[in-house]
# Entry
Amino acid sequence: MEIFYASCVGLLVSCGVFLILRSRTFTVVLGLTMLSYAVNLFLFSSGRLSINKAAVLGTGSEYADPLPQAFVLTAIVIGFAMTAFVVILAIRGQVDLGSDHVDGQVQESNKKGNL
# Structure
């Protein structure tokens, strides 16, 4: 179970880094979102993966650690706010520059209509 979980985190990180290194702003936003998902999974796994344990004290003899769950919930809210902010910045850059490239310059192959 831990190997599958770690491979999911690794896959999300590698896809996120790959998308961040692209030249268009939409793929950069998707890459940042995937990295935030990977961080959320990593934070959640820091509380040890446990099956059939109560999340709240007093409802069972064994319980799961609630602190990583609180961290993940906080990270989800902050990640959503930052994603909304970055999307607004990307839209503003598209309107101001007329291009959605990260550096604001269109490559020669894209000027001809080829993507």
Notes: Residues 79 and 85 are 10 Å apart (CA to CA). The two ends are 41 Å apart (CA to CA).
